[in-house]
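Handout, tutorial session.
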Amino acid sequence: MIYLIVVGINIFFNKVRGKWTIISLLLIASLVYLSGIPDPTTTADYLAYQGEYQNKLLGYTSRFEWLYQRITDATIYYNFDYSQVRLLLISIFFFVMFVGVDRLTKNTKYYWLIFSLGLFFIETIQLRSFGMISFVILGISFLRRRRILNYAVSTFFIFLGTGLHSSGYLFLLVPVVCFLVKKWDIKKFVSALLLNLTVGAALIFSSTIGASVILSNLLNSISSNSESADNIATLYATGFSLYTMLLLVVFVVPLIYLVYLLKNNKFLLEDKTVTIVLSFISVTMIGIPLLILSNQYDRILREGMMGMIILMSIINEKVNTNNKKNASFVSLYFIFIFVFIGGIQNSFVFQNILHYVHLA
């Protein structure tokens, strides 16, 4: 019930002028509570993380990244059990993301409302990935000023994210892209999208086993997730699935819609924050060919959707968008969430959405 109440309050205040940070904080506090103290039996990945923590207590070597291990080393020293560790980490990660989003847009109430209605259910169950993207968002918020110090601080926070999930190494490209691209235009951004789609198409129709082995070995060397490399090695045996194609479609369509909104409001492309967010989204486009290689990389497209929400928050902040345009974006967003959360396959996560927010 608490979830419905705070979401309802945020829907109301999204219709009211003003930043209303206190309302966003109320929603965040409820999300911290719901995701920090969930039911272990109905929360995907909870038992896996708990088992990993208990193994660490017994002295086994953890397969997780260095920063996550350093944090759990400290909590073990202070005799935390896993439920306390999870609540602590969720609280830290939400705080980090709040600071990052607040630095990128004044329209934080819109971001947190949309996040709470979809990505919240997927991101927070994958604890390390959620922490990683929180630090990435904080990191890119420092790129509004083109100074060496800002690039260094940005890179530092993104690097911290890699210590929580190795997929964060991809986002070290964001400062590089921001340095190279002073301002995005529609043609340049669409070209980046088409390039990634073309590479993806080439991978779909490629039958060169040697290429798959090289890519498999490369990803295995930089990622702690061996399943991703295994998926690539077996890609040409299992074939490209229609479900993977659907994942790509529901990512690309809302992105094209945002490009349409930017095309009709080209003055937004002069905004430094818009440049940062577009650079971030352009990096997540690399998830298109990566998804074709391994479904383990669907998380990169999910992070891209976070960028889209931030961009839509900025658009709503700078432009008087009508209800129809907002409804169009939100509808595309819900379709995205339904597909990525496994609604089509009736996945474990999808089945337990109501349990996660204490409505069942």
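The second record follows below. Compare its token runs with those of the first.
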Amino acid sequence: MERSAGSRPRRRRSRPVLGGAVAALAAGALTVTGLVSTAQAADINVARNAGFESGLSGWTCTGGSGATVSSPVHGGSAALKATPSGQDNAKCTQTVAVKPNSTYALSSWVQGGYAYLGASGTGTTDVSTWTPGSTGWTQLRTSFTTGPSTTSVQVYTHGWYGQAAYYADDVAVTGPDGGGGTEEPGPAIPGAPAGLAVGTTTSSSVALSWNAVSGATGYTVYRDGAKATTTTGTSATVSGLAADTAYQFSVSATNAAGESVRSATVSGRTAKKDGTGPGPSTSVPKHAVTGYWQNFNNGAAVQKLSDVPANYDIIAVSFADAAGTPGAVTFNLDSAGLNGYTVAQFKADIKAKQAAGKNVIISVGGEKGTVSVNSDASANAFADSLYTLIQEYGFNGVDIDLENGLNSTYMTKALRSLSSKVGSGLVITMAPQTIDMQSTSGEYFKTALNIKDILTVVNMQYYNSGSMLGCDGKVYSQGSVDFLTALACIQLEGGLAPSQVGLGVPASTRGAGSGYVAPSVVNAALDCLAKGTGCGSFKPSRTYPDIRGAMTWSTNWDATAGNAWSNAVGPHVHGLP
């Protein structure tokens, strides 16, 4: 969030520009080296585990970008799925044994996003071919000739930066046997399960689910480090638990070769015996409006909390300040800048808002925020200092608006620690920038998924952004219905519940450097996501009636414009199904 109006410098990761070549070549796959040779009848496929039936055995994928899936597949029961992220193009490689001075036909079936197939280290001319993506299986083909002393070649697949995941199956490197043979390896110990998440909870049980692991025949669930249950599926319910208690869960995959390492740990809290539900019992309505209240004067209307209109359900006090200890925060009311607003009045106004059913939370970060949580010590300091502020001022929770970097491992620890201290009633919101939520591998996105069971809402900032990719892999420009809906779709289909997704926009043209949209555009985007009406060119494949609502920067800029934003968006949000 901005402490001053107008544009601001943004730290952005560079993205390769595909340029006009994409449009020129989008009609089909191109073979870089020209004609494809035909293999001789006596030739064999020298690639091992070419159909990924043994997981990723024999293959290496950069940055953990690759995994095997059971659907879609071209042949057999498995295929490769590799997902580009950031500066990683999801390259998966295998070194194959070849004969010198020999010609090999290289092919693979692919679908999904941009997909490349190639060979390097041939000793002559390295080759590659690609396709800009397809909804069905497409075969990529090329060929290469080995040099006089070449006995091994690296074959590879990869996608393209910022594009959707690609799938590959039935890779063939057909030519003379180089000594590697074609015998497939035996079962290998499976990889650790990913995507472990907490589902429905009762006062005595917690439901869990996770992603399937290729080659696994069973799974073992652990509770607080001890074996709790086993299953052959990708879900389980752990029972016999105490009410209103937090537990740590992990899961491993097993087969005849052995047991994998355990997954990342997730926390799940059982419900109270009175049925009030697990974790924080907040007063946040099903559809809510969030507004940032400025604890400074930057030319927008100066407000007391009591001046904030009733259309706002969550009021984020902006901002907490970094303290002397790494990770620790404090809060200093800018009484001088707020026309003499006293701490006593501020605290009384918080209580009055809460009595009216509103939530007042403390926001950490902003454009100039310097809080860093990157170690166990700083995570503890962060949680402890926030708990102190919550006790002193009566805040309902915390908003994470760190725009200069976030470490998902330690922020997760910090927020879980805070949750364990505060217990029922804690509100946790987040306000990442658009670049932070382009992929589930981003630190902000990982943090949101890590705390999904205690997270209230993510209100991404759909402004000061420029163009971004939507969930359909297309590029959308800010300031439109499509930008709001296609980018929200990434979060909605990336693991967050609809109730944990909100649309963050400026309250007026002065509230941000770029990306302002009229309240009517915000309402149309909410209708598109919730009801499938009012959409632009992008229309989601399904509706999300539980979409949480909208957020704005700021209540002060809204007041400067006569509260036009909250008067239009507030009733619309509260009227959603």
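Points raised in discussion: The two ends are 30 Å apart (CA to CA).
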